[in-house]
Amino acid sequence: MRLQEAGFTRIEAYSPIPVDGLGALLDIERRPLDRAALFGALFGLALGFAITVGQSVFQYPINVGGRPLFSWPAFMIPAFELGVLFGALGALIGFFRASGLPRLNSPLFEVERFEKASEDAYFLAVFADDPRFGDAREALEDLDPAAIREAQS
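The chain above was modelled as a monomer; its predicted structure follows.
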């Protein structure tokens, strides 16, 4: 992609259909939700295990039938449940982070005909925090676009 070769780093593309390979071209992280859910699940698993071990072994040790205080199979059910809960919360937080929520509007929504991005038009956005933003108009004109619009945040 010519814009990335020119040094632009803060670029987003909007398309009505999935374009194979576009994410790799724009260097978009492929699976942020997978990692967020995995870290959440591992945290929940460790937390659930630590809570049950702490209570059964250290805070309220009760000897039941001569069994050892640290009987790990009994601690796995609460650990699993907290792992599932925190995995779901991690995925939810990852979704919010990846989609930019809770911001419900974007300056791009004010751009004339931007709604066509969900119908039959393609848009490239270069954000103002890009180090080369001052050269964006010139670089975009080299791509021979149908139109160039500026959006104010």
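The beta strands are 11-14, 123-126.
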